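Why predict the complex rather than its parts? Because the way molecules touch one another can change local conformation, and only a joint prediction can capture that. The input here totals 684 residues.
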Amino acid sequence: MATNSEIAKAAGVSPAVVSRIVNRDASLRVSAETRARVEKLIDEMDYAPNAAARSLKSSKAGALALVVHDLTSPVYAEIIAGAQRAAARHGKALLLGEAGDLGDGQSPLERLVGGGGVDGLILQGAGTHMDRALARAARRSVPVVLLQSGDAKGATLLRMEDEKAGQLATEHLLALGHRRVGFLSVTEGLPFSDRRAAGWRRAMEAADIAPTSDWLAVAGNTYEKGAAAIERLLSAAPDLTALVASNVVSAVGVLARLRDMGRRVPQDFSVIAIHDIALAAYLRPSLSVVKMPLRLLGEEAVEAVCAEERVSHESITISGEEPLLIQRDSTAPLDVAEEGIQ
Amino acid sequence: MATNSEIAKAAGVSPAVVSRIVNRDASLRVSAETRARVEKLIDEMDYAPNAAARSLKSSKAGALALVVHDLTSPVYAEIIAGAQRAAARHGKALLLGEAGDLGDGQSPLERLVGGGGVDGLILQGAGTHMDRALARAARRSVPVVLLQSGDAKGATLLRMEDEKAGQLATEHLLALGHRRVGFLSVTEGLPFSDRRAAGWRRAMEAADIAPTSDWLAVAGNTYEKGAAAIERLLSAAPDLTALVASNVVSAVGVLARLRDMGRRVPQDFSVIAIHDIALAAYLRPSLSVVKMPLRLLGEEAVEAVCAEERVSHESITISGEEPLLIQRDSTAPLDVAEEGIQ
DNA sequence: TAGCACTGGTAAATCGATTTATCAACGTTC
DNA sequence: GAACGTTGATAAATCGATTTACCAGTGCTA
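Output of the joint prediction:
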């Protein structure tokens, strides 16, 4: 690849001229002929400024990293879309990464982020080793924004109104006449999942219902684990009639297993999940959800990372959009003739 | 952030020593005390080598870019997983990007890739402007591997046995007794989709069936477009009894719409899709598919990009794993009493 | 003719890490 | 005591782009 000086030499000018032409420096005064000559050579010799050199000189990488722990989850699609849009506004490339489980300080991603290879890090963590290592590595050189959970020391923590979402989902089921409403969390101790569980508990208590501990099960974030979890849950608490699922992917597994078990949704059992993903409308039965402002979360995360004045390391709750109930076919009043049919 | 020379000064040594300690240079001879002193300072002062400087000097970015046109598609999950694994083997970070639609030569992603900000580009294109712009930008500085489609000029093109997959899917339906088998393509002119269609046609011809043009429809790659496509297809050719879907996401939309239309799957209508995604097993009915070696594709792509000697710009078909039929509940022999029931 | 502004540039320092060639000091060996 | 090897380092060039400060020449005015 051609370098700046090669172009300069070929054009008979100094590298400064080439650089300033490439960067559209308005304060540059050159004759029209010189400018044309340089531009022609840039084109012919296929010149593009070296990213490393530019970034070294300017201390700007021109990119942001968004690292999640599971790229396959459709939940991230919206976050990414929002982040993408905001990053474009700031003229930055958005690089997605998936956090492995090493976190030994030697992984290429850690080296990159820790060495200022990106201008900021947005981390959707799951409390793993790698998460912590990555956040630590980044913190010493670039702003870090944590999504939904993590140790906010030296970073900005961005959250959503998870408790309200859990509450809203539960209230919907209660309004349909359900009383024995279970809850599927993601992982024990995962902050946003715990907040949703708190919302569930609060709504239940407000309705004078005291859920016992076997009304709650851990379902992870995969189809498979969701399917296994509903089976465990119903064998521990067979008289549940409805369910709030903290993770929408696991809810899809729940629907499949319920059908396999002969429980009809929604006639025999209602299911609602947190987060609206495109798939939810195309399941049969389609899945009722509480929609959260995921896109906004992605946008705000990028804004926070770009605005970072190395000052405001706080914990912020996204409040631009309220959690929104979207009723589809997986929730309904309990069929009173329930036992007779099937 | 501390720099190399700051550490060196603090430790009373030259920057060379610091660099060689950080990089575990085996040929470095230092006293145990000096080494300990430097390592202590590296730790205390939170030193990490600057990514830009290192990459400038070494001409290695330590990262690969994998750019797809739709990050939300679950089909990429497997490709990404494979690429991730292979990248780790090569000590490179894998950065995912989504190609927007600009391609004006000014997008941050183009600048990054064109300026050698990554060591290689793997591009899963859709024939857009941006695809071409990105490939062009990258080609002048780093190796490029195209997945499944694209203009291989100056790049390596990696393909899968799409025709065989299309054929296998069709033969499965024929073996079940179906004769009027439709096909849903992704986009007109998209190479891999066309190859799958060719496989369908070949299998049909081998069975002495001549599909008419209204047995084929374009279904895109979203739930919504799949749903719309099956409706169009069945109004144009109502007597079809089975379908091969080139894109598995659109197939999910197909299943939903079929149920809404009162066509029972598989009793009245069979559906099979190309690519096995985790969701397929958790739909009800679960979705029969032809599994393709997506993970292998991801791995091979990384290998190709890393091995690239600026020589072998060819077109390679992945042949490590054969397309594999996975029969689930969405395909079955046609119910002979079809008209009587429902 | 001095003074001044404008045009069309250039020189050179700088960003931070890497790496090769070199070297001083000290002990060993013959 | 001369030659040599070893240990424990260092000096300085280099990667490529950016940017500030400066400058030579030309034309214009007072």
